[in-house]
Amino acid sequence: MRGPTAWWQGKSTPAKVETYTRWSFYSFPLIEVATFGLPVLGQVPMPQAGWLFALLAGHGALGALTGARALDWVRDVRDQPLQLMWAFAVFSGMVGIVVCAMIGRVGDDETDAALGGLWAGVMVFGIGMITLGVRRRRSALYLCAGCAAGTAVLSLVVGGSASEALAATIAVLLGTSFFAFTSVFSVWLLKAVYELDEARETRARLAVAEERLRFGRDLHDVIGRNLAVIALKSELAVQLARRERPEAVDQMTEVQRIAQESQREVRDVVRGYREADLGVELAGAQGVLEAAGIVCSVDRADTAGLPGEVQSALAWVVREGTTNVLRHGNAGQCTVVLKVTEGQVVLTVENDGIRAADGDGERTAAGVAERSAGAGSGLAGLRERLAIVDGTLEAGPVDGEAFRVVARVPLAPETAPSPVRGSIAVTSAASAVREVAS
User: Burial letters for 156-182: b for 16+ Cβ neighbours within 10 Å, e otherwise?
Assistant: First the structure.
């Protein structure tokens, strides 16, 4: 069973903001009933108090439903609930008229004060819930102004003095304006958070597309001309062969040479694309994580003296770890540490967010990484790459919240550089998304 903490931490940041917003507005009907309904039960005589409390409870329930449907409309899950909003507005007005008609007729001054508070509460909470489903912000101002004007008219109709009507109007205007502003701001914040999250995903997709275009341009530049030459020389060789000219053999020999050269050049391009520089990957990891709003610290040793195959294997660990943090975690901090000793080099990538669950609802660190990449990637792919250089990989949760990946590669005594520690702060994001493009 997953506890409330795991349920909350398993949500993305936009989902957390939406959940907080929804339950905040769901709690407002309870606040309305507790704040204005209980005084009515204590001050208004029966059976009027029971009917008023029932009306207020119904008003709160209908308001919660209106707010839920309005937030669904904000998230583009439902159409705008215009009929429900009109029904809630009419019901709020009817309750307000009933309460206003009872003021001065069913009790003393304390009873009238309780009824007046009930009237103001129904107006304020009613306008606040309706504002969630309003598209234009100016319409919210019109609602507040109209509610205040209606309050003034009703106050005078029931026999209140001008000063009492003015005081009630100002109170309702301030209350509805505050609640309307709260609703408008909450809707704006919810939309902004989701738009920022979508913008970050779009930026990652654009980076992947740019990397693919770069690779395509490199292939075109390398083999485009050679393929054109091969096509021309093959056509020439066909014509010479039809005329039984011995030069056809020379032309086909040249075609063979160009094809072999093109094959070698393509291998060089692919090798340069798939082999990674550890220093560049460390810099790119910090840059792309900080660009995504994740606090990242990189503590590294000098990589200049490391063998190329060791750097390439560890660079893939950095790529995979960075991709996992961005796509499958809910991290706020990430730490990358590279240590080089006389006998081995150790790379540690640790973040404080795990957002994955297995079939039973329990967190699985392996599942986080394995679901983050396709076939041939993930933890299994990293272990295969490290096995080429006799390295090992350890991955798993730490203290129940963090996820740590540790790669160890042994070094020959003559290739182990002296450990030098330092910090870097570079913003290069292209290398961190190559794993997604491949």
Answer: eebebeeeebeebbebbbebbbebbbb
Question: How far is the CA of 94 from the CAs of 123, 124, 157, 328, 428, in angstroms?
Answer: 11, 14, 15, 51, 62
Q: For residues 404 and 352, is the Cβ–Cβ distance under 8 A?
A: no
pTM score of the predicted model? 0.51
Token pair, residue 112, equals 């009238």
Instruction: Indicate the burial class of 84 (C-beta count within 10 angstroms; 0-12, 13-18, 19 or more).
Output: middle
Distance CA 94, CA 390 (A): 79
Angle at which helix 48-74 crosses helix 13-32, to 10 degrees, equals 160
- d(C-alpha 307, C-alpha 329), whole Å: 32
Q: Measured between alpha carbons, how far is 247 from 231 in angstroms, rounded to an integer?
A: 16
Residues 34, 209: Cα–Cα separation, whole Å = 56
- Which residues 6+ apart lie within 8 Å of 174 measured at CB? none
Q: What does the DSSP assignment read for 305-331? A: TS-HHHHHHHHHHHHHHHHHHHHH---
Burial class (CB in 10 A: 0-12, 13-18, 19+), 97: middle
Q: What is the amino acid identity at position 199?
A: A
Mean pLDDT by 10 residues, the chain (438 residues): 65 81 85 79 75 84 87 84 87 80 70 76 82 79 80 72 76 81 85 84 77 74 76 87 87 86 78 67 78 78 78 83 73 86 86 54 40 50 84 84 87 53 31 36
Residues 6+ apart with CB under 8 A from 427: 286, 287, 290, 291
Q: Which helix (H) or strand (E) holds 345?
A: strand 344-351
Closest Cα to residue 68, out of 122, 13, 132?
A: 132
